[in-house]
Amino acid sequence: MTETARDHVRLFLACEVPDEVKQHISEVIEDLRGRSGTEVRWIRTEGIHVTLKFLGEVPVKKLPAVKLATQEAVVGHSPFELELSNIGTFGGREGLRLMWVGIAGDVLRLEALVRSMNAALAVVGFEPERRPFRPHLTLGRVRDEVSTRRRAEIEVEVGKVGVPATSWRTSQVSLMRSRLTQQGAVYEVLATFPLRVLQQA
Questions:
Q1: Which residues contact 200 (CB under 8 A, 6 or more apart)?
Q2: Which of 17, 24, 65, 187 is the most exposed place for a label (fewest CB within 10 A)?
Q3: CB pairs under 8 A, 24+ apart, for 41-44?
Q4: What's the number of domains the chain is made of?
Q5: 41-69: per-residue pLDDT in tens?
Q6: Is residue 73 over pLDDT 70?
Q7: Is the pLDDT higher at 92 or at 81?
Q8: 182 in a domain, yes or no?
Q9: What CATH number has the domain bearing residue 95?
Q10: For the chain, what is the radius of gyration of the CA atoms?
Q11: 103-112: per-residue pLDDT in tens?
């Protein structure tokens, strides 16, 4: 007998961002919205985060193993500073598909944290991510029905939008649950794992 959907949770690991960063992102989205209107599905800024690893649908009984592996992964990683970079885009065969804001700052330390997570979670059955890690905050996705020409026009407008200089301190990793609703994804924090400075012996 197959397990029901209630026996699984959709999980990912992320670094959350402070409210003031979310406010800046909200202002950027409002600027973009004025240039592209309803042709883009914009994210809800209250749930914005830096995704470290997407785990997918995970059996509830595997949660303790996920938490233990994550706790092991953060050992030896201390807090670090991140900042917003420029707006970028991802495209597909039809043109512009996704808009995002890049992450700068202590990216090397962020990448090291992600490598530790991949290694620890591989031990409990999660395949390491093969694609290069590109930290970013998703802003919006162009709707499927938008024409290739219009996608190109929106991409030109995106290039005119600036990002305010904003930095913040990242001090923990969150295990997040994602619930897919008609209004978009709703996120719930299941556990947090503080980054701590190791004491010298």
A1: none
A2: 65
A3: 41/140, 41/141, 41/142, 41/143, 41/184, 42/139, 42/140, 43/138, 43/139, 43/140, 43/184, 44/184
A4: 1
A5: 988 888 889 999 999 999 999 999 999 99
A6: yes
A7: 81
A8: yes
A9: 3.90.1140.10
A10: 18
A11: 999 999 999 9
Beta bridge partners of 98: 90, 141
**Has residue 200 been placed in a domain?**
no
pLDDT at residue 201 greater than cutoff 50: no
| 16's tokens | 């959350």
Q: Does a structural domain hold residue 201?
A: no
SS (H, E, C) 133-190: CCCEEEEEEECCCCCHHHHHHHHHHHCCCCCCCCEEEECEEEEEEEEEECCEEEEEEE
Separation CA 176–CA 55 (nearest Å)? 10
Which two three-digit tokens encode residue 166? 């904003």
Which one-letter amino acid corresponds to residue 194? Answer: P
10 sits in the region (left: phi over 0; alpha: psi -120 to 50; else beta) called: beta
Residue 105: both structure tokens together: 């700052």
* 185 CA to centre of own chain: 12
Q: Report how far residue 32's alpha carbon sits from residue 30's, in angstroms, rounded to the nearest whole number.
A: 5
Residue range of the domain that includes 142: 5-194
Report residue 84 as tokens.
């917003």
